[in-house]
Design a protein that fits this description.
Belongs to the binding-protein-dependent transport system permease family. InterPro entries: MetI-like, MetI-like_sf. It is a multi-pass membrane protein. By secondary structure, the protein is mostly helical. It is 74% helix and 0% strand. It is flat, with a radius of gyration of 23 Å. The relative contact order is 0.14. The C terminus is likely disordered.
Length: 275
Amino acid sequence: MIKERLGKGLNTIIMALFSLLLLLPMIWMISTSFKKPKDVFTYPIQWIPFDPVLINHIKVWTTGDGFLLFYLNSLKISVFLMIGAPLLAALAAYGFSRIEFKGRNAIFLLYLCLMMIPQQVLFVPKFIMFEWMHIYNTHWALILPGLFTVFGVFMIRQFFMSIPHEISEAAFIDGAGHFRIFVQLFLPLSKPVLATFAIIDFTWTWNDYENALIFLLDKKLYTVPLGMQNFMLEAGVDYNLMMAAATAGVVPLLIVFFIGQKYIIQGFSSSAVKG
């Protein structure tokens, strides 16, 4: 009994140390964002600034184009995809998991093969298609492709496959159709996996640099990654301003994670129980 407690305590200490090690870069980033330029590279490192200032964060939002427009652009795209992508992925996942049709498994296998194609290969076809659709240099060039994710369909389908068929069969006997079963049974049961994928998709979209760089030309349409790059070019070697901009870019990701973390924990817990 004592050995078991000592083992758990030792594991807890080791995991806490590893967690702290992983958090050190973020702690340094936040700490540096409140420092004066002369204090950035002082040794030993000032993890808590002796003379903290807010001017760095103020400059981020007021210098040049500011971050407000970039934030609004990223929020519009990310929130739209965080809601739309899981819903469309859930619809496709339900079809692949519960609706019998000829060639279903072959089509799903072919669908999964799309995960093997590097995104860089699709830039030229996307550019041609977006030009033809007249959505190049608009936010729709990021929103429309982002609504359809192979990973989301695969992830949610695997969860739907774990739901007993007796539940849907009982609903069919009671006269419910596929759409009603999907809305009233599968969606409520899949809140943890939908929330998990929504957080993942929000993170992908918020940090998407390549697509925004290629398909957005107008500076007024820039997202946070492009805005940060533009800001760093303007700020030069002003590291305290760069860290303030990076801190501002991380805040929405932390907020979304803390809001949805209970659903992620529920998902892991339910998986453990099923196992």
